[in-house]
Amino acid sequence: MDTFIKKTLLFILLAWCVPVFAFAAEIRLDAHKVNVVQNEQFVVDIVVNSAESLNAIEGRLVFPPEMLVVTDIFDGNSIINFWIEKSRLVEPGVIAFSGITPGGFSGTNNKIVSVVFEAKHSGDVSLTLQKVIALKNDGLGSKAILDSRAVQISIGQGDSVSRKEIIIDTDIPEDFNPTIESDPAIFAGKYFLVFGTQDKGSGIDHYVVREGQWGWYRNAESPYLLKHQQRDKKIYVKAIDRNGNERVATIEPQTNVSWWEQYSIVGILILIASLFLIKILWSKFTLLEK
Question: What global pTM score does this model have?
């Protein structure tokens, strides 16, 4: 009887503990290697595990700037779709990040961002996460509780030769569909362009926009105020990742295009052909005179 009671109590205890472990949520630092030497580069990922769906997260990665130098920050393959504050070095020893994912995300090993460090001096260093705030995807903006896990890096003596961490990316950014919107609270109700995509390799570096078939691309951020409010131009949005790979998305004119613009290419070709013909005829006429 005693054995039966003990087994029953053990079963109840385990059943009571399982949900706790199942629903535990954490944000942690994962180092690709924890033992390096001076002038060696290494990658640290910020990773989130959560059984509950989250749709927003922000925080700071803190490290000793006298020991480590940030050489690059990659948000390719991030679970974050839109950055409120793109991951960047905001002060010595502090990298800030803040972003949202419409529709939310959950599960294990959700990467937020990857940071490439270079070790400058020998010794043991600690990298920590601070001021982390995560919001549940419950429509109420409820705060989620995340345990935080730091990482320790041991830096040994090394030579002066830099050993680089190389992230290879040959893939173009993901397909995307820009849209034209209008809102009384944004740009005084004028038409603006909304766009965004991801790059699972090195991450998006920047966007450029061109309105119409002619002209130059301009650096742009979403939302982008349209220069041609008539919406009679074809719009080109180019996403460029950090390795120079590009993808172009287009929006057709929303209103009728002027007749002269529709036939502008044909007209230019006719003009070029006419000039070429005149040149040939003029050459022949000159030869006849001689």
Answer: 0.65
Q: What is the DSSP string of 123-159?
A: EEEEEEEEEEEEEESSSS-PEEP-EEE-EEEEEE---
Q: What are phi and psi of 176, to 5 degrees?
A: -150, 160
Determine phi and psi for 93, rounding to 5 degrees. 85, 10
Q: What DSSP line would sit under 227-268, residue for residue?
A: S-TT--S-EEEEEEETTS-EEEEEE--SSPPPHHHHTHHHHH
Question: Sign of the C-alpha dihedral, residues 48, 53, 55, 58?
Answer: negative
Order of strands, sheet of 204-211, starting from the edge strand that comes earlier in the sequence: 218-220, 204-211, 235-241, 246-251
pLDDT (tens digit, 9 = 90+) per residue, 209-237?
999 988 899 999 988 999 999 999 999 99
DSSP 76: T
pLDDT at 166: 66
Q: With the C-alpha atoms ordered 261, 267, 268, 269, is the resulting torsion angle positive or negative?
A: positive
Neighbours of 8 (CB within 10 A): 10
pLDDT attached to residue 13 = 41
Please enumerate in sequence order all residues whose Cβ is within 8 A of that of 62, keeping only pairs 6 or more positions apart, or say none: 93, 94, 127, 128, 129, 130
Both tokens assigned to 197: 């995509």
